[in-house]
Amino acid sequence: MALFGAKKNKRNTKRNEPQLFNDGVRALRADRKPVKARRGFLRRLFGLLIWLGVWGAVAGALGFGYVLFSLNERGLLKIPERQPGIMILASNGSVLSEEGAFYGDAAHIADLPDYVPNAVIAIEDRRFRSHFGIDPLGLGRAMLRNVLAGRMVQGGSTLTQQLAKNLFLTQEKTATRKAQEAVLALWLESKFNKDEILQLYLNRVYFGSGAYGIEQAARTYYNKSANELSIMEAATLAGVLKAPSNYNPAKNPGAALTRAKLVVNAMVEEKFITADDAAEAVNTAGGVTPFASLPAKQYAVDWITRQLPLLVKNYDQSIIVETTIDPTIQANAERALRKRLADNGKKMNVSEGAMVVMDPTGAVVAMLGGKSYQKSQYNRAIAASRQPGSAFKPFVYEAAMENGFTPDSTEIDEPVRFGNWQPENYKQKYQGTVSLEQAFAQSINTVAAKLAVTVGTEKVAEVAQRFGITSPLTRDASLALGTSEVSPLELITAYAPFANGGTAVQPYVVRRIVTRDGQVLYERKGDGLGKVISDNNLGEMNRLFRAVVQSGTGVKAQFGNFDIGGKTGTSQNYRDAWFVGFTPYLIAGVWMGNDDNTPTKNVTGGSLPAQVWRDVMEPAHQGLAVAVLPGYVAPNGGQMLDQNAAQRGQGTANAQVSSATPTPPAVRKPRTIFDILFGGGPDPAAPTRKKPIWEQRQDEKSLY
């Protein structure tokens, strides 16, 4: 039974084996279902990603094509030409100012030290040499840093993208603009190699202080060419790019230095320079010219620039503007005004000044619109209208001379009233009977007012306008004391006839404008504005002007034995102080006061303004022959006999000019940069004799 039972169980086992196998298979299949499900999910996900990638690529291609087409339709797929540059030259051919791209893309990568472009690459786009215009790694890294910081701390734009934005686009921050930037970056990479892109970038990017391009930046901050920059200077300029205002080395030297050190460290990390190079660069770091010391010649440059559209309508290439500015006189004027204000401004409550120097033809050789161009760009020399005070009296006295008065005529200095107005003298002192020469020299107000009323204020205004005053003038008796406002340039221009033989002039500063290729676009021509005073009256007026400087209110203006004429002016409550004076060679005027029209502490025209005038005019006349002011007075007048006698130095003692007039030194006519670039021009060694303009006019009347 046991055996039988055992056999039976064996048979039952065999009989159940298929069932067990099937059960095992089913169990195995049950275990495999999750694996298959996962694999299926992954296959579907992968397929979806491929599908999205394909359609994303299609959409991207279509979007790229659309943006590219729209940019092409707008004409943007062309590197824009740089705006024509302007080079402004002084009278001696030196460069006063250079604006825009005068020499086109002046900096060439091949000519620059490697560390100059590498400084920009190190701090702005380390993967510049390896990416294709858009840097996904750099973009991802920037996004991660921004997320971690919770704010925008780093941008992902490449140098190529920045160039695309600078060349073609606006600064707006929109998705459309970013898409255009990306498309243009790819287009740039397809059209130019890396060096060409880098060169375009370096020559178009803004470095602050009005400097576009590495060449202009190097000259602006370091007065040298870009190929002469040191490692630290290159690093400083590269550091400016992130924020031209914040890291401007002239405006914020501390921040600029800190930023430059970061650039140097980045250059070491990228193996552009060695650690030793970096240490030496940091140890030898120098500064730049601070903005507070920017030359005030910029006032003249601004004035010149504003005139260009009136002189040349259209030009499609860079131009050279030859001007009348004398850089030596200009620099002396800047120093003189600043020094007098620094020494006396606070204690005398005077904060500003302006000055114009011109030759007798009206050519402006120096212009100051204020003491500091950086602190104020307002040009007081041409835009400020102030009361001239007694500096207006020459037109009153000339009106009197035209009505029969002479320097020897007499008037009574006494209290006087005209309607509701009563003129008062300085310190309310009255001298009784005085000659007109004495009254003019001492700037006696009552006499000037009497003369104006006697000849008529309409006559006085007519004389002033004939000489060059263009501002509106009142017609009441107070006109005699300069209550109508004028600009410094206007008043100084009106004094020119007294120095040049009697001809009114139009002030000018541009002699000629030519293109880089030598085409003349403008050249000044003209005969002046005609004679406005007779020779006899001119001689009489210059007798009065001499008395002011020799024994009157303007004695502080006298220098050497030069024949000088001038007039002081002080407005009511000492708000404005003037001195306008001249020699046969130059006319100059100085105004000093406060912009808010507050009174000074007793500053008169014969004090600080006359001193500034002498500080500038004395060195300007160094080496020039002594000459007598023009004008004719009849022999029985006891004054200068005639112009020929004056020319020979045979003036009377009243003129105080040496009879032994020295021979004028030979002066070289300057060559301009136009002559240097294109040849020609006068022989630098050929001397020319400089004469007072009124002497020249005796032989060549038709010129003026």
Characterize the structure shown.
With 704 residues, this protein is of the alpha+beta class. Among the domains are: 20-75; 106-293, Penicillin binding protein transpeptidase fold (Orthogonal Bundle), CATH 1.10.3810; 389-484, DD-peptidase/beta-lactamase superfamily (Beta-lactamase, 3-Layer(aba) Sandwich). The chain has 23 helices and 14 strands. The chain has helices at 2-73, 115-124, 136-149, 159-168, 175-191, 194-204, 214-222, 231-240, 253-269, 275-283, 297-311, 327-348, 380-383, 393-401, 436-441, 445-455, 457-467, 488-500, 535-551, 608-620, 643-647, 673-678, 693-699; strands at residues 86-89, 95-99, 319-323, 352-358, 364-368, 410-413, 432-435, 510-515, 520-523, 565-570, 576-582, 587-593, 666-668, 687-689. The protein has a five-stranded mixed sheet, covered by helices on one side. A five-stranded antiparallel sheet has the order 5-4-12-11-10, sandwiched between helices. A two-stranded antiparallel sheet has the order 6-7. Strand 11 and strand 12 (587-593) form a beta hairpin. Helix 2 packs parallel to helix 8 and helix 4 (159-168) crosses helix 6. The protein is elongated.
Gist?
The protein contains 23 helices and 14 strands. It is α+β, with helices and mostly antiparallel strands.
